[in-house]
Amino acid sequence: MKKIFLIIPVLLIFSCNTKEGVDLIVTNANIYTVDADFSIASSVAIKDGRFVAVGDSNEILEKYNAPEQIDAEGRTIVPGLIDAHCHFYGLGQNQQVVDLVGTQSFDEVVEKVVAFQKERPSTFILGRGWDQNDWEVKKFPTKDKLDELFPDIPVVLERIDGHAYLANQKALDMADINIDTKTEGGEIVKENGAITGVLVDGPMRMIDNVMPKASLEQKIQALKDAEKISLNYGLTTVNDAGLSRDIIELIDSLQQAGEMSIRVYAMVSNYPENLDYFLEKGIIKTEGLNVRSVKVYGDGALGSRGAALRVPYSDMPGHFGAMVTPVDQIEALAQRIAATEYQMNTHAIGDSANIVVLRAYEKALEGKTDRRWKVEHAQVISQSDFDFFKNGIVPSVQPTHATSDMYWAEDRLGAERVKGAYAYKDLLDKAGLVALGTDFPVEQVNPFLTFYAAVARQDGEQYPEDGFQMENALSREETLKGMTIWAAYSNFEEDEKGSIEVGKFADFVLLSDNIMTIPSEEIPSVAAEQVFLGGLRMK
Q: Which CATH number does the domain 94-208 belong to among 3.40.640.10, 3.10.310.70, 3.40.50.880, 1.10.155.10?
């Protein structure tokens, strides 16, 4: 009998030692793996930042041990969420300026500017987020009140979509903008023979040239602020739609120093100095940073009537919007980029801009395969043009744009043309996938609002009751794929992220509710309770 008691502990020790050591085991979870079969697992084992096992809790516990184990208690886990189109650095910058998002009138805008200046006095006042479509009087503001309050301090207030400024006279004088200033690719808005202070698209660059430059410390703070906000919502990868070389290199240095964790897919802003450097250098790829695309602006935005349309705006006869980048330049850029390994990712809102971009892509990519060039927004498409997306072109769309714009989109486009707008299901049927994002800070960062807008086509007030153009709603499975594996594919990263599979980065999110089964009206309240990046808990 004594011998038996001696043998049992030895066998137990031997049994434990035969288990493979890992860093973390999660059990008793409802895991949507988003693999090829969209299978569900209950457990994962993680080592050195990657998944080493995905499957049944009992089987994984029999094979592995770890110093840290998490019992998910049946809660839902999804792959780390990817925002396929956002302005990550811009979100951080916004934390340093007057927040005008949600203002209900221009008077409220002015009140916020005055309050901000009292609290944080500045020699150059910047703000962002106003949208005249949210106001009772839905017309562009003028600079008169800003001139009166701030005659000697430049004020520049950016529209929510980033495609218009309201600048006071001091800022206009600094930029040498007057009634006779000529402009291309946009508009200096005039009223009664005088400039109003509103600049749409092209002439905004003149203001950009006189804005104060951020210090290195301010840039770092902006990136860290944006990371904190993004991770809090379960975003583990962000696609920043337009970065300069200095910010890209700053992100890389922060990541290498261990001061920044979120993964960034960086689109290079279309400026000569950026293209000359990056296209010559080639793809830059680390575990945290991927630089392999160029962001080009085709036209402006629909909300500011800067989107380029084939026939005039229904609510502004004779006005077609404008191309920000002329047609011949888009075609030349497409040829130049096609000769490299880089993607071309082009902002196209109006139907005229979209066909220009799609034709340029088709011509430049003739004879080339698997280039995955993207149309960013693909917002208004003529019915005859959807077939272009059959040829490997990726539509990168933002579902909350549909539910933000639905109040006035038909006014801009008319009852027939609006049928080809925000047509995510039609795009999916042609392209075979859609990459989903938010365009934050144009829209809110919250990816669960993206999910809700895609499947319910309603706003936060559950309007409209039957959903907006529900024929173009996505299923929940399609939506989750668009926020994970399809977004990863659009970045050439499907082998390392976008699903919970052995060998991929251990990026995943534990949710407060099962987003795949709860009533649709509850989706906006879903929260990312725990967020893991490379197996490390970020939240």
A: 3.10.310.70
